[in-house]
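ARCHIVE CARD
Drawer: 12
Card no.: 0347
Subject: one protein chain, sequence and derived structure
Cross-reference: see card 0346
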Amino acid sequence: MCGFAGLFTYDPARPVAGEELEPMLEALWYRGPDGTGYLAEDGLGLGFCRLAINDVEGGRQPMSNEDGTVWAVHNGEIYNFRELRADLTGRGHRFASRSDSEVIVHAYEEWAEGCVERLRGIFAFAVWDRRRRRLYLARDRSGIKPLCLRFRPDGIAFASEAKALLAIPGAERRLDLLGYLGGADLDATLTRTAFDGIVQLGAGCALVATADGYLVERYWRYAPREDAGADGPADAVEAFRAVFEDAVRMQLVADVPVAAALSGGIDSAALVAAIVRAGRSDIRTYTVAMGGDATEDARHARTVADALGVSNTVVPCPIDASTLDALPFVAWAAEGEFDLGYVGRYALARAVYADGAKVLLSGQGIDEILTGYTAAYAQYQQGALHRRLLERVRPTYRGWPMFSASVLEEMAARLSVNEGAAAPDLPALGSLVASELRAEHARLASALLRFEDRMGMAGHVEVRVPFLDHVLVELCAAIPEASRRELFSGKALLRRAVAPWLPDEIVRRPKVAFNRTAPALTRLLLGSPEAHPLRELLTRDIVEAKGYFTWAQCDALARTKDFTALDHVLVVHMLDEIFVRRFDPRRRDQAL
């Protein structure tokens, strides 16, 4: 929901004008088509563009407390706002709206920086403590909502997306290819973006800024258990089911229509089943069909919809010249690496919004929590050990063949002997798996959660992800190694929890790679019978003029039809054109 932008100055006497915020908000127009608002004064400016979801009439932002000493802008949803509101009202706070965002203002009044630990939801927000001249920024625990920063000699610029920071007059605009490559260091409090000088506040982190400078701290850490003990949730399956149903019920709250994405896999099917169990059999579900409407996903989605008695709309995403025409706007919204899956999600968001809904529930995130990308937990263990070993002997392990289990065990034993440590046992392997789980969770914010947020907002739709409810994530993290071998293998924990709700063929359906039928961007581009303007970005003149890659390298990729690698050339050149050479915060069309 929404987008915001702001400027904080270390000099408390330096006025910030609303005109300084306008180009920043202009760049975020699609995040908030329902209105804008500003707070501009000495030392601080806040701008907000709104997608109205809760308290449509009364939830305008920036929002303040009773006496105007605390102001806030908030992107996201606070799912436990009713409980917090009741608590805060009992403590003497007076509310002026029914908006979930207002609880942030009063929670900060009551608990200062400790307020963030009481929030259950998806959020990025800025609080201005006018009395103490103190800015407080925070981001949700998994990084579901974005919060970009640019540190300047005179203060801090912040916004929901990087393009708003590029819109500041005089701002330097250059790509950062390390940031473009994505990923995040474990426990990083600030992470790179695809743009030089612009970072994101880390997931589960908060920033406090005053005239004396700023401090970034972590308030939450994803910490899967490392030990092999047998103690864990008394009945993990029942506990998982209960927390999951609770999370879904909370995330259905909205004053506008809500929809759900349904791919036909176990994750989205479980989500829709939980929605129906929460009394919302009127939910509308949507399925993207890359290349047509008769895909395997569409067939399985129909099976789920029929079994649960819900409507299902198949959104065809043709793979043709019209797809290529959409790429520049998708690049503008994505702000980083993307593929044709982004085009499909954008098409789905547009279909949802056209039907009158502004909220979309998605089954994203559970694969990273339950080792869902491997068929069996033992395979995941071996993969973790394989990567750790190769990190020690060769910094870049990608592309190496997977060693056999016996070779891995022998290598691990030799490494341990060489380091003067005991041979690895189950706790050591549990530690490796915990580290791997944490790494997968850390990558979510820059990859799949960026995909969900940016493509949803590009279509004026807020995406919610119940599987990343932090209470559910913490429950899974508390399961020890001894139990993970059984409950995580093939996502057995999820399958057992929802088995009574769904057809057996869906419960047993194996993991299928997302976007598996979509070709690489450059395969589509170079295979098109008609010349497309985007082809120019792969010509020798452009490659040499931009200087990101060598022509010999690009020519070799094209000749060997390594389209996956060649896609990076295309996307980097598109980002360069859109954000560096021809940047315009008022951009509305899809032209390059």
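Annotation on reverse: The radius of gyration is 24 Å. Confidence is low (pLDDT under 50) at residues 394-399, 417-426.
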